[in-house]
Design goal:
- With about 525 residues, the chain is an alpha+beta fold.
- It is built from 21 helices and twelve strands.
- It folds into three domains: about 110 residues, 434 Repressor (Amino-terminal Domain) (Orthogonal Bundle); about 170 residues, no CATH class; about 170 residues, 2-Layer Sandwich (Beta-Lactamase).
- It has a seven-stranded mixed beta sheet with strand order 7-6-10-9-8-12-11.
- Strand 9 and strand 10 form a beta hairpin.
- It is globular, with a radius of gyration of 26 Å.
- The two termini are about 35 Å apart.
Length: about 525
C-alpha cells in the first residue's frame, strides 16, 4: 500500500507516467482535471497542480493520486517506480523521427546544473568531440521538427523571390548587392584523414573572409550545381547572420562538418562551437530553400513523380534535391543518407525513425550489408537503384522503399546518396493493414533466405500506396527482390545469419550470468 512516508521516494517516474497516459488517451490537462473533479471535487488536482506533478515539481497526496489513478483505471501502486511500466515511462514522441527517447527521470539528476557537469565528462571519457555532440543535437532538433523551419524558408524566399530555377548569374547579382567581392583561388584535392583516421581526398571549396571577401575554388566554375550551392550557402550567412565575422569554410570530402570556428576540437565542449554548428545548419537549410523554393519545387516534384533526376532540370546537385524532398513533401516519413565507404555518414536525416546500421562517430564491425547504400558502396559500377526492404523495429516489421544514387564529391571521392520512405503509414492511410502486410513480406523474405519477389497481395498494396504518394521509384523498387535488413549483425533475421557469431550471441549481462550460476549451484 502506498503511504505518505514512502510516496516521495517511490514516485520518481510518477509524473512521466501520468503525462504519457494522458497523452496516449488524447486528454489535455484541463480534460484530466475535469475527470478528477467528476470523481471527487475536493481531492481533484487543479490544472496548474497537474502541470507541476507531471514535471516532477510536486508529489501528490496519496488520496489525490488515487483519484488520478481511478480516471485511468489503474491501481495507485502502478505509478510507483518499482511497478512494471516500461512502455508508459517512454516519452511519447508523437511520431517524430530519430532515436527513441528516454524519460529524463529522476528529474533532479537531469537538472541543467548536473548536465553541465556530466556532459563534458561523458565526452572526455568516450572520446566524443564537442562538435560531434553539437551535430547530434542539431540532427535531433531537425528530426523532431520534421525539417519544418518556416522562418528560414521565408528568409530564402524573400531573397530569391521563389525563382525556380535560379541561375548562377542571379546568385552573383545577389552577392554583389551585399557589397561582397569575389576572388577565385586554385587548390587541388589532397589526402586528408577524418576524425576516425580514414583517408580520403579533401579540398577547400569556398570561404568568406570578413569584412567583405568571398573566396571560391576555380573548380566550381566547371560545376554549376555546386557553385550555386556554395553561393546560396554564403548568401544565407549574409542574410541570417549579417556577415558577423564568422569564417564559414566549405570543404569537399568526407569530413562530417565544416568546423567554422577553425579551432581544433577535442572533447572540450565550447558553446561557441555549438552556435557555429547551428549556424552552419541554418545556412545549409537556407541554401536548399533558395535553390528549391518550397511551393514551386513541390509542384515540380509532383509533375515528375519525385524523380531525383529533376536535379538536371534545375542544374543543382542530386543531394540538394533529395534533402529538399524530405522538407517539402506533404508525406513526413522520410529518411536521407549521404554515405562514404566503408560505412561513414556525412549527413543523415530520419523523419521516419529508421534504425541506423552505422553512424558518423564510429565504424561498426557488423553493419548489415543488405542496405541499398552498402550494396552500392561495394559496387562502384552500380547505377541508381530502388529497393524495397523490410526491417524489424520495436514497433514490429516495417516496409521501407529507397532510391540510392552513386555520386562523386568535388574532391572526386565516391559516395552514395539515398532518399527513402517508411511505407507503413502510407499503407494504413490507403486502407491496407500495414503490420499484416509487413509481416507477410518478412515471412516471404525469410523463406527465400533473406530475399524474395514481392508477393502479389503485398505488391498490390504497396503499388497502390506508392501511386497515392506519387513516388515513381516505389514502383521500380517492386521490380527487384525485397530484402530483409537489420541494424546490426547481432540482430540478423536471416537463416543462416550473415554473421555466424550472431546466432549464438549471449544476450545476458555479466551480472545476470553470475546470478544464474548461483541459482544453479544452490
Amino acid at each position: 500500500m502506498v503511504t505518505g512516508q514512502t510516496l516521495t521516494r517511490r514516485s520518481h517516474f510518477l509524473g512521466t507516467k501520468i503525462r504519457n497516459l494522458r497523452k496516449r488517451n488524447r486528454l489535455t490537462m484541463e480534460d484530466l482535471s475535469a475527470r478528477c473533479v467528476k470523481l471527487d471535487p475536493e481531492l481533484a488536482p487543479s490544472v496548474s497542480y497537474l502541470s507541476m506533478i507531471e514535471r516532477g515539481k510536486r508529489v501528490p497526496a496519496r488520496d489525490t493520486l488515487a483519484v488520478i489513478a481511478a480516471v485511468f483505471q489503474k491501481d495507485p501502486q502502478w505509478f510507483m517506480d518499482d511497478a512494471e511500466a516500461e512502455q508508459e515511462i517512454r516519452p511519447d514522441k508523437s511520431g517524430r523521427g530519430g532515436i527513441a527517447g528516454i524519460a529524463l527521470e529522476p528529474g533532479f539528476l537531469f537538472s541543467q546544473e548536473i548536465l553541465q557537469i556530466a556532459i563534458p565528462e561523458m565526452l572526455a571519457q568516450t572520446g566524443t568531440s564537442g562538435r560531434q555532440l553539437a551535430h547530434l543535437l542539431i540532427r535531433a532538433h531537425q528530426e523532431h521538427h520534421r525539417n519544418h523551419f518556416p522562418d528560414i524558408e521565408r528568409a530564402a524566399e524573400e531573397v530569391g523571390g521563389k525563382q525556380l530555377p535560379i541561375h548562377v548569374d542571379d546568385m552573383l547579382s545577389i552577392i554583389r548587392k551585399t557589397g561582397v567581392k569575389i576572388k577565385w583561388f586554385s587548390r587541388t584535392p589532397k589526402e586528408v584523414k577524418d576524425e576516425a583516421g580514414v583517408k580520403s581526398l579533401g579540398t577547400v571549396r569556398s570561404f568568406f573572409d570578413p569584412p567583405g571577401t568571398l573566396y571560391l575554388n576555380e573548380t566550381l566554375k566547371k560545376q554549376a550545381g555546386r557553385l550555386k550551392y556554395d553561393l546560396a550557402l554564403h548568401i544565407g550567412h549574409f542574410t541570417l547572420h549579417n556577415k558577423d565575422g564568422l569564417k564559414s569554410v566549405l570543404l569537399a570530402g568526407r569530413s562530417q562538418s565544416n568546423n567554422s570556428s577553425g579551432r581544433q576540437t577535442g572533447s572540450d565542449l565550447d558553446a561557441q562551437d555549438i552556435l557555429n554548428a547551428w549556424r552552419d545548419f541554418e545556412c545549409s537549410f537556407f541554401a536548399g530553400a533558395l535553390l528549391c523554393p518550397k511551393v514551386p519545387f513541390r509542384q515540380l516534384l509532383d509533375r515528375n513523380s519525385y524523380e531525383v533526376g529533376v536535379h538536371k532540370q534545375l542544374d543543382v546537385s542530386p543531394s540538394v534535391v533529395m534533402r529538399r524532398m524530405t522538407a517539402v513533401s506533404p508525406y513526413p516519413h522520410w529518411h536521407y543518407f549521404d554515405a562514404y565507404a566503408p560505412g561513414t555518414l556525412k549527413a543523415v536525416y530520419r523523419g521516419n525513425g529508421i534504425p541506423l546500421p552505422w553512424g558518423n562517430m564510429r565504424q561498426v564491425e557488423d553493419p548489415c550489408q543488405h542496405w541499398s547504400v552498402f550494396r552500392m558502396l561495394a559496387d562502384s559500377q552500380r547505377g541508381a537503384s530502388a529497393q524495397i526492404s523490410v526491417l524489424d523495429t520495436r514497433d514490429g516489421p516495417r516496409i521501407y522503399c529507397c532510391e540510392s544514387v552513386p555520386d562523386r564529391d568535388m574532391a572526386d571521392n565516391p559516395h552514395v546518396l539515398c532518399a527513402g520512405i517508411d511505407l507503413n503509414p502510407a499503407l494504413d492511410a490507403a486502407g491496407s493493414p500495414a503490420r499484416e502486410i509487413a509481416q507477410q513480406l518478412k515471412d516471404a523474405c525469410a523463406q527465400g533466405g533473406g530475399d524474395s519477389a514481392v508477393p502479389d497481395y503485398v505488391r498490390r498494396a504497396i503499388l497502390s500506396a506508392g501511386r497515392i504518394l506519387n513516388i515513381a521509384w516505389v514502383e521500380r523498387g517492386l521490380a527487384n527482390p525485397a530484402r530483409l535488413i537489420c541494424s546490426r549483425g547481432s540482430m540478423c533475421p536471416r537463416i543462416p545469419s550473415c554473421y555466424p557469431a550472431a546466432e549464438s550471441a549471449d544476450t545476458m549481462t555479466v551480472m545476470e550470468r553470475m546470478q544464474q550460476e548461483i541459482r544453479e549451484e544452490t
